[in-house]
Amino acid sequence: MVDLIGIEKIVAQMKDVLIGKTIESFTLLQKKALNASEEAFIDRAKGATITDVYRRGSWLVTTLDNNENILLSFTLGSDIFYFENNDIKEQKYKPNIKVFFNDNSGYVVRFWWFEKFFIVKTDEIEEVINATEGAVDPLDEAFTLDYFMTLLGGKKKQIKAFLMSQKKVSSLSGMYMHDILFAAKLHPLKNISDMSETDIEQLYRSILSYIKTCRSKMDFFGERGAFDGGDFIIAYKDNNEPCPICSTPISYIKTGSTSTYVCSTCQQLH
Question: What is the pTM assigned to this prediction?
């Protein structure tokens, strides 16, 4: 079973400090993440008190005392940090969502990828989550090597595009995909039908290894969680910087609607 310590750690930290706090206001800068208008969202949550925090799949659910719930899709594409005394640390976190409590504390959410921040009635939670949880999270017990082999079997898409679709495997954002593919020695444009069982197993191991590393960095109090250049292998390096394995200049190539850092020697297409 994959280690769930990272995500469960944040849930425990949130429960410890948030239960009993009353919501004062929000700043909702990422409108596309919401399932209601900003005005409706604030109206439904303002003045409510937090009674529980728990994880449901890849969602963090914050239960309020007015039959409302705040749902945050918490994958590898988001960070969440607590603050006190209105000290948000704007420059450090660059948040998309700000939640303020009536004691001058609160938390901010920073999105790295496409995430959701919903307000949902208690009797609608299961319906909302089930409608958006079609993919298997690599932290789930169901994400075995056999499952992954079966998932990729017979597919004709390019491997990066398939993984980025989020339809079969969740929690894999573009921010991490560069290094996941590099560690697996796979070119992002390689067709799945051309991958061997060894290729698939290497990719599976790479996904698990990188996700465990990413999740272990998460911390509600901002002590860890922010990635910097030293956390990446080849991603976000200067163009033509040497590959750390073979010294071939790293390239930044177009891969469909996105671009990817690759080493042409370590990640050969054919």
Answer: 0.66
Say which residues have a Cβ less than 8 Å from residue 63's Cβ, sequence separation at least 6: 50, 51, 52, 53, 54, 69, 122
Q: What share of the chain has pLDDT > 90, as a percent?
A: 53
Q: Is 39 exposed, middle or buried (0-12, 13-18, 19+ CB in 10 A)?
A: exposed
The answer to whether 160 touches 197, Cβ cutoff 8 Å, is no
Q: Are strands 68-73 and 117-121 parallel, antiparallel or unpaired?
A: antiparallel
**Residue pointed to by tokens 């573009």:** 174
For helices 197-216 and 5-18, the axis angle rounded to 10 degrees is 20
Beta strand pairing call for 106-111 and 251-255:
unpaired
Place of tokens 């910097």: 228
Mean pLDDT of the chain: 86
Structural domains present in the chain: 5-132 (3.20.190.10), 145-262 (1.10.8.50)
Contact 40, 111 (CB under 8 A): no
198-207 residue pLDDT tens: 999 999 999 9
List helix spans (H) across 50-173: 90-93, 125-132, 145-152, 159-164
Sequential DSSP letters for 86-99:
T---HHHH--SEEE
